[in-house]
Amino acid sequence: MENKLDITKNKFSVIDSVELVTSYLENYQNNKIFKYLDDIHNADIAELLQNLDPVLRLSLLNIIRDRFDPEILTYLNDSLRDEIVETLDIKQLASNAKQLDIDDAVDLVEDLEKEDQNTFLENLEEEERNLIEQGLNYPEDSAGRLMQRKFVSIDQWWNVGQAIDYLRGNKKKLPEDFYDIYLIDKDRKVEGVVPLGRLMGSKRNVKLSSLKNKELRAIEINTDQEEVAYQFSKYGLVSAPVIDEQKKILGSITVDDVVDVIEEEREEDILKLGGVGHTDIYNSVVDTTKSRISWLIVNLMTAVVASIVIGLFEAAIEKVVALAILMPIVASMGANAGTQTLTVAVRALAVKELTTSNALKIITKETLIGGINGIIFAVIISLVSIYWFQDFMLGVIIGLAMVLNLILAGFAGTIIPLALEKMKIDPALASAVILTTITDVFGFLSFLGLATLFLI
To answer: How many C-beta neighbours within 10 Å does residue 404 have?
Structure first.
């Protein structure tokens, strides 16, 4: 297995890695552990740590603690990150953080306990400490937290030859990876962006101002990270300068940081739609239970509301037992249809495809789709009900209730997230509970109400 892994280093397999490191730990082969970890990416080490048995994970951390790269922490689940930080020595961690990008260092420090934050910062060089503290002063999830402090800015009046000479003579001051060069004036205001490839492909006497992009896409320091990701996606950016209120450059955001934001926002929305605030797979049983119980209480309350509606028609259900058998169908179909619409609407809001300008058109479309689906499934369930209970009117009633509830589901699935967005409430977090309550209550009310009118 060891040879196989050596040959296929770039094809990381977490299962093989866990087996290999486990065997090294059990046989006290520390040198092989160091060699193996040196050959794989920090993201792979993070995945390895997440999948190791807790006891073995602790053993591995104790072995590598003096050589532990803090960048590994940036790839870890939050709860597991906290657990590992408690195991490591904060002073040693700070000492190992010299090669860490400032934006990654800010991301790491902001999640530490206050006491650990102070210890970490005290053990950094003054320049790096000041940059991290500046980053921590910006709002959470803002461009200020996301940006890198190292970037390439050059006088806008220079030519290609001057720029290349500058880059060659200042290697130590350059970021490890960069894609664009920012042209600035004497006040450090950004006047343009020149892609690195365009610079290297031009003759030395060409003015940089003639090579800059037609449009300047700069991001203000307090811009929310979700808006930053939207700008990168919309305009196909690989990097963008970050500016203050006076339009002076403060840093740079690159596409690799934005990919992390997109993944974070996607995961957050999925979890919220499921009534879970954050990933809790590595949390303790008690902590996980506490985080989930609030939404379960809300769901219990909505279920009680639906039960109260059913209770209003107790007499009708006693006389026509078929109602009790069929009524969950109407409610569940409405909830499922509404959830489909809701998922599309929340996603459309996130990527700004659904706005106030086209809201009426989208609401009308989704309501119409609900009506069409309602008619199709009304015919199916009506025929099934008539055959099952030998009652034509019962089939007509459940079909009509199905149409009405699916129309409402299409309408509510669009209007609810729009309304919550208008009220500054996260649609991903609250929409599902409201929608389910509406479709359940209206589904029971329409079916049992029609049955009371026409059958009893």
So the answer is: 22
